[in-house]
Amino acid sequence: MDAPEPDQTPFAAVSAQTSRLGRIYQSYLDRSTPYTAYRWIGTSALLMLFFLRIVLAQGWYIVCYSLGIYLLNLFLAFLQPKIDPSLTQDEGLEDGEAGSSLPTKNDEEFRPFIRRLPEFKFWHSATRAIAISFFCTWFGIFNVPVFWPVLVVYFLILFSLTMRRQIQHMIKYRYVPFSFGKARYNQRGGH
Question: What is the pLDDT of residue 134?
Answer without folding.
Answer: 96
